[in-house]
Specification:
By secondary structure, the chain is α+β, with helices and mostly antiparallel strands. The protein folds into two domains: about 230 residues, Sandwich (Jelly Rolls); about 90 residues, Orthogonal Bundle (Arc Repressor Mutant, subunit A). It is about 30% helix and about 25% strand. It has ten helices and twelve strands. The strands form two sheets. Strands 11-8-5-10-3-2-1-12 form an eight-stranded antiparallel beta sheet. It has a four-stranded antiparallel beta sheet with strand order 4-9-6-7. The radius of gyration is 20 Å and the shape is globular. The relative contact order is 0.17.
């Protein structure tokens, strides 16, 4: 899911600063509810800005170059990156687009994106949007230059930013139209959380099983099973974020076996579902949010300091041995 802000500048005007978080303090408790995950190769902090809008900051270590494909069922994502060239490329149709410098990526619900990550640390921030989207919102994934002076403190801010953009072309994986893939995607999007077998899809769409599977994989870069499982995982992630029990999230998303769910979730998200089910932390004050624990407790330097360190670590030193065995 999102990036912490620029890793190349000492200041990131487009990021929510510790001072800016005061806008989200509960008047009664003077605290902000959030999620804090700190694993050797995966760091995530997130909190609710307002109903239907969550903010996330994340760093993810890739021991080798990796391809990931995401689809978000029922909600959109607005990513903000500030990466050096070559760290992140998006596949759109037959082309590869380098996401470098201050760039935003709007991903509407059920839009397939294929991200090619270079080895090392990748950092970003994002906003998960579970709100009705007006007709001017793009129907496909789009990338556009990000103004670092932008501040997002409400859904209305996102509306204003997107209204001001002129999108020329889509950057989602399915830039090329394909009738078979479109039929399969539409069907799976509708029924993925049910007891849906790939043979059922072929039968329902009156397509030969092998033809459907091969055509879909060639066009989408993943099998119909992978597409279905990705939707299920992101639905489970949303359910867990809404305080649903892990087993309930597993079954409601469409999985019939918890161990299989756990395995697939970790492969797609990069962290165990247990991480997301931990009791959310509470931000006692602005300094508390800024403090990041990396090897040891540190003073309030904020995420920007951490990202600078992570960038230096990935450029100048090999990762610790235990970081390379989490992903395949």
């Amino acid at each position: 899911m999102a990036e912490f802000g620029s890793i190349r500048n000492k200041e990131a005007p487009n990021a929510l600063s510790p001072r800016g978080l005061s806008d989200y303090l509960c008047p009664e408790t003077k605290r902000v509810q959030g999620l804090d995950i700190h694993e050797p190769d995966y760091r995530l902090k997130a909190f609710l800005i307002e109903p239907g809008l969550n903010y996330m900051e994340r760093a993810h270590f890739y021991p080798a170059s990796e391809i990931r494909r995401d689809i978000y069922p029922g909600y959109a994502m607005l990513y903000v990156y500030d990466l050096p060239p070559g760290k992140l490329r998006l596949k759109t149709g037959d082309r590869m687009i380098d996401i470098a410098g201050p760039t935003a990526l709007f991903v509407p619900p059920y839009s397939l994106i294929e991200a090619h990550y270079a080895a090392g640390w990748i950092t970003w921030k994002a906003y998960a949007i579970e709100r009705p989207l007006d007709s001017f919102f793009p129907e496909r994934t789009v990338a556009f230059p990000w103004n670092k002076k932008n501040e997002i403190r409400s859904f209305a801010n996102i509306v204003d930013i997107l209204r001001s953009q002129h999108f020329s072309s889509s950057v989602d994986r399915l830039a090329r139209e394909n009738a078979v893939s479109k039929q399969v995607c539409n069907f799976v999007n509708r029924y993925f959380s049910e007891d849906l077998r790939i043979s059922d899809i072929a039968k329902e769409l009156k397509l030969p099983h092998s033809t459907m599977t091969h055509t879909f994989a060639d066009h989408c870069g993943m099998t119909p099973v992978g597409y279905r499982n990705t939707l299920r995982v992101f639905k489970a992630l949303k359910l867990i974020g809404d305080n649903c029990q892990l087993t309930d999230a597993c079954y409601q998303a469409g999985f019939s076996d918890y161990s299989n769910f756990h395995k697939i979730f970790k492969e797609i998200i990069g962290a165990s579902p247990l991480n997301f089910a931990r009791k959310p932390y509470q931000i006692k004050d602005m300094t508390d949010f800024a403090v990041t624990r990396h090897k040891e407790d540190r003073s309030a330097q904020g995420f920007e300091q951490l990202l600078t360190e992570l960038r230096a670590d990935s450029d100048n030193h090999p990762p610790p041995p235990h970081q390379g065995n989490t992903k395949t």
